[in-house]
Design a protein that fits this description.
single chain, about 775 residues, alpha/beta, Rossmann fold, N-(1-d-carboxylethyl)-l-norvaline Dehydrogenase, domain 2, 25 strands, (3S)-3-hydroxyacyl-CoA dehydrogenase (NAD+) activity, NAD, 3-OHacyl-CoA_DH_NAD-bd
Length: about 775
Amino acid sequence: MKIQKAAVIGAGVMGAAIAAQLANAGIPVTLLDIVLPDNPDRNFLARSGVQRALKARPAAFMDPARAALIQVGNLEDDLKKLKDADWIIEAIIEKLDAKRDLWARVEAVAKKTAIISSNSSGIPMHLQIEGRSEDFQRHFVGAHFFNPPRYLHLLEVIPTPKTDPAIVKTFSEFAETTLGKGIVVANDVPGFVANRIGVYGIVRAMDHMQRAGLTPAQVDQLTGPALGRASSATFRTADLSGLDIIYHVASDLGKATPDDEDFTLTPAFRALVEEKKWLGDKTGSGFYKKTKDEKGKTKILNLNLDTFEYEDQGRVKVAAVDAVKGQPLAARVKALYAAEGQEGEFLRGVMNDGFWYAAKMAGNVSNRLQDIDNALKWGFGWEQGPFETMDTLGVQTVIANLEAEGRTLPPLLAAMKASGRDAFYQGGEIVTPEGQPTPYEAPYFILTDLKKDATKIVKKRAGASVIDLGDGVLLAEWHAKMNALGEDQLRTVQDAHKLVQDMGYHGLVIGNQGENFSAGANLPLILSQAQADEWDELDDMIKQFQQVTTSLRFSPHPTVAAPFGLTLGGGAEFTLHADHVVASAELYMGLVEVGVGLIPGGGGTKEMLLRFTDMQQPGQRLGATLLPAVQRAFELIGTAKVSTSALEARNLGFLRDTDTVAMNKNHILQDAKRQVLALAPGYVQPTPRQDIPVMGDAAIGAIKSALHGMHQGGYITDYDLVVSEQLAKVLSGGTGNNRAAKVSEQHLLDLEREAFLTLLGKKGTQQRIEHMLKTGKPLRN
């Protein structure tokens, strides 16, 4: 069973976004919706859904060209097109009768082998397929995406008692590998996993907030990044989701669950939805409201729940949060759980509710504790799930606190108390919902936690490690803040190259399991050395950086880079020099050095010139052939262009056509390892190029002419002009060369280093670096 063609029924927000994600993955998809009466365009709703997805921000499509893979139609004229689909998913109105009627029509035309799914967030799957044939029921499995489907990793797969296990396996593997989702197998119960536990947490947070006398803004400080959760925290998440959605989900869950689960909404929340009709972002007002001041600058006003008026409360400070700033997650969680005053009272109340409920739901919403943890992490942006958080605090400590509140322990916690075990995850085991230890089964695509497995670490530094991936492949892994590139990171790559050769490994992967591949060079260090006039040290450091980046290509063994997330500056330069790249589809890659008054100094300028020059057609006059290549490299680097996906990175030239794009970020290290093993047999060490054609003064003159026109027109600043002229010098191969000259890679690297140091010595560049470090934004001086 292979899914090569798909169909989506329902072109609303979710349906169109699911179709876009299928197109992102290269899957042709048919998108159908109803026909609007009196509208001459019978495909209007489906066509509008695609257009809405194209305009969505954040973007639903990784490359707008992928929209061509979506064929629009309607349910009256085009239902027969479903016969070609290997997977059919509905995303229509949340009414049981409507879904049942649709499935009757679908069964009449779908091929017998097609997998059928519902994206329903609340209607039980088994109820939808009552009356359908046994064969249809065997091929039916729930597929609940989270919005927006491109960015939220979670996909809940919900089999019914009639679903064929082979269908669950085939679909889960397709969704995980091809669509890039994190799979949680949920039981067919109200709310499934993430919404059941997540909405319970939101409802209880509202109650505890009013008991503690806190404001929504204070609660969002307490339940956001400080606690290892998404920056939207509780009430900003509610506004984004829609207060009406939470209202209906909570009301439905309250009717479908036992009384002790308490999905009762506070009177204030009910008033917002029922009386005020303030539903969050969709109406412009919720717990927060965006407005503009007299200068047109956006301001966020906070809702006062006592007066129901919006107030400018300025920056909300919370003492418990300020006290844990800069501490690692485990220390923050422990400190916040033990905090004093109304803030601590609120946190313990809401966290204990969450712990109690997650334990109660174990074996109910899902049969594995790790599925509950993953659902909250992947669907709500938590760093730790509830069971992982209890492990951080100590399970016996949590149990004692729950009993002190007079709560009856759920069976799982009662079993943990009886065993004396203080962690759910321990020694390669995790407990079952019944409290029995069992071997931990990680999702197959995630590496074992190598940082905790000393037998896998070959060499370790404070900010980076060399790790044995098995099968004769090493990994150079960075693990510093934002994976900024400094001495530890560079020396670790050198260590890894030497180990590959000395110990007979096949090759090397450059990658990590952090939040981002690398945000670039260690700017504070570079600035401090420049201000201390340590120019010899800086020169040596840039030489070393160039040697390490280029070593990825010119070593005796294959090296594969596995970039993802932010891959900026030096991180991009490492990627550009690898023999092969396995990139996450969510790749934000760019040479952004001009934003701090510099140019790429680790071979990035050289590499983009070389790539674009090689793309030119042979047999044309050298000058006419080269100038477009120089201009393309200049525009890409000079505007600090950053890709919004791996597909765009390929279009921009950061990735080659031969490089690999993986939809699932968690697959890239294993895929990179496989690429090393594929390249290793018969691998021949490349040699640096000596024949790179450059235009010299002719290109410099052409670029300078364009620059001065832009400067006079006010499009670039005085200092933009200074930086751009240095960039033009490198891309032209230096002054004094004629348009027929050929230079070596080392010549271009030397020009890069000279330009980098020249700019670093200027006040304008140092001002830009200082401003970036202080504000996180570029300075236009």
